[in-house]
Amino acid sequence: MQWPVTCLVDSKDNLGEGCLWDVATRSLWWLDIARPSRILRFTPETGEHRLWHSDVLLTAIARRTRGGFILGGEDGLYAFDEVTGAISPFAFPEDTKALGNRFNDGACDPQGRFWVGTMMQNIGPHGDDLDINADTGRLYRVGAKGKSALMEQSIGVSNGPCWSPDGKTFYFSDSRNHLTFAYDFDPVDGVIGNRRVLNDSKDYGHPDGATVDADGCLWSARWDAACVLRIDPKGRIDKVIPMPATRPTCVCFGGPKLDVIYVTSSRAHRSAETLKRYPLQGGIFCFAPGISGFEKNHFAG
After folding, report:
1. Verdict on whether the full-model pTM lies above 0.70
2. pLDDT of 2
3. Distance between CA atoms of 163 and 257, rounded to whole angstroms?
């Protein structure tokens, strides 16, 4: 079976990430995190495309229940007001400079706590690509008032936090080590346990951003594999959807019925030959997976 993939926006993002569908405004939000970072919004019904520039290197984004957004930044979390464009400090769970790290992907659990991970700094001061040669990353849970707790450590590249439809299983990937984990999740206390490997395939690049569908299957963007995978709750690869970009980075469900998957991608540091073969690399893609998903959870703060 083929899943026709459309380029929704040829945005030519250096490092597109963090896509989310905002049900209230029927718009897609995402980030171009490479320096200088950009926050982007596209409304399919009107074709309106807006962007905001940031002096802070941004890595993750989630809606806030009070309005506005919470952002993962290079060194911590920031609040973003899309009306004024203001980006202000919110919480700093880790001394990233001391550890040589930066923050990366993040998402909110059903109770509105923000889960965000770190990784070895791989983006130089001028956007240059730095090597990742150690598992220095950590995973944090950040509450509505900014209080944080260390939940996991010794991670290569933190990515793809998401939850099963019943909220009892937490999924999280270490991209550097080709691992996607499943944990038991306590929704009341926000505690994870019983870590096990859900999928450790090295046949489809590295697991990057992820989301879950109504059947409880995980959709995983695959860095350096030009595809998105659907992985069932037992860790078996159920579907492989080819992408017109070698480095898909993040996925989310959206559209009026939450039955469209949107995919961000990266074109940074790609060779001229690769860009010729994949001219839409760095764009926003979409396809109809034949099943619906969920709006991403909002931050309670």
Report:
1. yes
2. 66
3. 20
